[in-house]
Structure formats: C-alpha cells, structure tokens
## 1
Amino acid sequence: MSYVYGRNPVIEVLKTGKVDKLYVQKGNREGSVKKIFGMAREGGILVTEVPKKKLDDYSEGNNHQGVVALVSDYNYATLEEITELEHILILDKIEDPHNFGAIARSAEAFGFKGILIPKHNAAYVNDVVYKTSAGAVENVRVAIVTNLSQAVDTLKDKGFWIYAADMEGEAYTTVNLKGKVALVIGNEGKGISPALKKHTDVTVSIPMVGRINSLNASCAASVLMAEVLRQYATAEVPSK
C-alpha cells in the first residue's frame, strides 16, 4: 500500500478504482476537494476527515493540499505486455523518484505507453512518483526486468529500434525515429551503462548552444519523445 497526495494526483488515482481509503483535512470542502468528495461517494470509497497534522504524517511533510489517498500496490506490467506497444522508454538506473515521475508524466503526454526499469538501483513507482507525475503513471505500463540488456534483445526481436540518449550521439533532428521505438535514458550522473549501450542501435544527442552542455534526465527524455511524436505521422521503418 502507498499514499498519494495532492488534489490532481488524487483525482487521477480515483479514476483507476484503486483507492482504498481517502483522508481529507477537516473543514476542507472547497474547490476541487468538493469534486474529490463526489468521486469518492460515487466509487463507494470511505472518506475520513482528519487534522492537517495527520495528513502531514501520511505525506511525509510534502504539500498534500488537504487530501491523501491510500491506494493499492501498483500493478506492474510484464515485458511481454510492453513489447506489444509502439513507443516505450527504458530507464537505466534512474534513482530519483522525482525524475521518474516527471518522465512518466511526459511519457503519457507524448504517447509513450510503456516504461522498462531494472530490478536494482532504480526508483520504483511510489507516492513521490504519483505526485510528480500528477497521476499520469497510472496511464503508463511499467515493467521491472532483471537484465536490461537481455530485455533490449527481446525488444529487437519484436521489431523495436533502440535509441540511446548520449552526448556523443547523432543530432536527434537528423535521425529517423519512426516505427517501433525504444528510447534509453541513462542514470542522472553516470548516463547509460557501457554494457547496455552496446546493445542499442543508434545513439542520439540533443544539440545545445548554452554554457551548460547537459540536461536533466526528464528534460532530455521529453525533448526526444516530442520528436518521436512529431515524426510518428509518416512512419517509414528503417531497414536493418
């Protein structure tokens, strides 16, 4: 079980039917909280009004906006289910749940319906991810795999092209990103591991002209996913 807090994330998770119990700050029934009460009533979810201090505890001091939902454990997908999708992300040891949540939010916005994460040294779906993604993680399938390199080989067998985001790669604006695409985003500090990079098909970079020559993992992922979406309309799969 985990806690989801904040009005928009709670509204999104209420739509999934996974909320077991809802906690609302005493006396707080204005604005979107009124909508949350209505959704809970329609879903037959127990609502308990509690002091702000209780919500502070549930959210570990984060900004809960007067509402916290207790939700069932996240339902992870299988690798096989992920291979049935068109556009996916592979997160190589993204350890910050805020980054994971931001990436999941962008993934949902740009039509990337699946995310692969490794079993070790990676953030899992938790309340911080829910909050940062504004609930979007519920609309994206996340699968945990033991070995990312082996998973990449499986994706290739299913017709995916694997694109690694790396500063030394080709400018993404010159690369054909059509067809079944898997984007690999590396660790916040170390980037993509050399072993995994060897299994990718193309390395792409984001041209920059400022003094800072790198982007946050979630920002880089958003830029590349936006380009994939732009190219999606005229899909011509490159031949291997």
Note: The chain has a mean pLDDT of 91.
## 2
Amino acid sequence: MALPAPLHGVIPPVCTPLDPRGEIDTASLTRLVNHLVDGGVHGLFALGSTSEVAYLTDAQRGTALEAVIKAADGRVPVLAGVIDTTTPRVLDHARTAAALGADALVATAPFYTRTHPREIAAHFRHLRTAVDLPLFAYDIPVAVHSKLSPSLVRELAEDGTLAGLKDSSGDEGSLRRLLTALGGRTARHSGPAPGFSVLTGSELTVDAALLAGADGVVPGIGNVDPAAYVRLYDAARAGDWEQAAAEQERLVTLFSLVDVGPESEMGRSSSALGAFKAALHLLGVIDRSATAFPQRPLSDDAVAEVGRRLTAAGLLKPGGAATL
C-alpha cells in the first residue's frame, strides 16, 4: 500500500514469537499482528531490534516478514527491517523484502567497521537506487557505533534518498536539532523536506517528541499495550497535552517491567524482550514467551512480576484474565 507522506502515528516494532524448536511461530505472530491492528496502530515495523532481527537466520527473517505482511493484509503499511553489516548484505534483505510485498525498508548505517559520513550517505543512496521502496534510516548508535548527524539526515531527506528516520539514539538534543533544521514544530511539513517522517524510538518521551514536531513513535512496549500509545498520539494531535502526559506517565510505569530480569543473571536485551514476550503470553496473544538463543529466559518469579505489573496497569485482571 502507498505510505502516507509523512508516515505518522504509532508503528510498533513487532515481536517475533518462537515455537519449541526456536523457529518462527507464525500462528502466534498472526495473532500479535491482529492485536496491534485492533489496538489502532498506524503501521508495523517487522524485523527491528524488538523483533530480535539480529538473532534470526535469513530464512527465519523471510518467514517472519511474510507472516506479518499476510496478517496485516493491507490494513496498515509494513516496514521491513533490512539490518545487516554491509551494503551488499543489506541489499539481499531489501530485495527479499520487496519480493514479499513490504511497503518500505528500514536500514541502519553499515557496522562492524566504522564508516565515514560520506560512506554512510553512499550506503543509503545505493539502497534507495537499487530497490524502489521508501527507505527509512534507523539511528541506533548503541548497536552500530555510528551516530547519524542532523546535517546528514537533512541532506538525505532533501535529496529524496530517505523517506524518514527512526531515532533510537537517545540523544534528545540531536533529535530536536534535526526537527528544527527541518522547519521546527510549526513548519515541519512546509520546510526543506515536507514529506519526511521523524519517528522517535524513545518510548518514554513520546509526548515531548510529538510536541517538538515528531510525526510518531516506534515503541517496543507498544506490542503489549498498543492502544495506550494510540491514545497518547491522538491526544497530542488534538493538542490535549495534559492527557498525552497522563498516558505517557502510565506507560513509563508499565515500561519498568523491562527490568524484571536481574542484571546479575542476564543482559538487558534478555530482560526487556523476555518481559515483552512474557506479557504477551500472559495476555493470551502468543503461545510461548521464549526468546532467541543465547538470550536467557526469565525466571518464574520474574514472569510473576510481569503479571503483577500488567495487573497494576489494568491490562490483566487479578485472576489472570486479560482485560483487552
């Protein structure tokens, strides 16, 4: 389907449920897509960090993306992560995504070896020329060790290379500088790149980003409570910043479930992704809460704590039934 310009709203990075063999559980993934679409989201980002894309084989990536596209059934656009170390490898993923029917691509800068901004620009331009789909840059320096500067992003926005940016840098000042360079809050879409979409991946400061002129959010915990992010977005669009802040504060409290896994026992990715999947399992959306190897599973106590936090958020009844 044609993407709106700019792409806007709530676009969750879709979790990837796994079966007992560690393969893609397409039935659970289909239910998850329906859970998200029924929650009112405006798009889906398949094969992002929350999707555990770095842990999946190429075949698993294809299976997961195909399942998301099929389940979405044209109701919302599907953005496909084509994340990999070098341009040729990213191109392989991009061509697969295009053949499967993805609506847009999401790519990081090249990584493993450090790259110069001119090399990063050439990478994105080559991808956009080779595969005729809208291309979104994914700024996540904690993973790729390169920060996309506001000046580089603006250059690639103005020349049409990039359709948008997912900013997961955690650098709120840099995001604000970019929004200002693109025209600021009041003139974002009459400035130098009128159709360019800025999406924040900082899910705890969405109200502030929207107030500054961002177009939407890509929230990992939006898998668990998509409707809350939609309410936040709708309140911001209506100028009801008090309601937007109230929704944001509730989501900040719910987000604390990402820390249920002790740091002495597992990495933060294992804890966060395990918590998202445990929550989805408790809500009856997916069949299993397993994460990809070698991430460590949450303990029974940690899963019970996830349940308590879902109950406190009003998503789970005290007896364990979902309130969705």
Note: The mean pLDDT is 96.
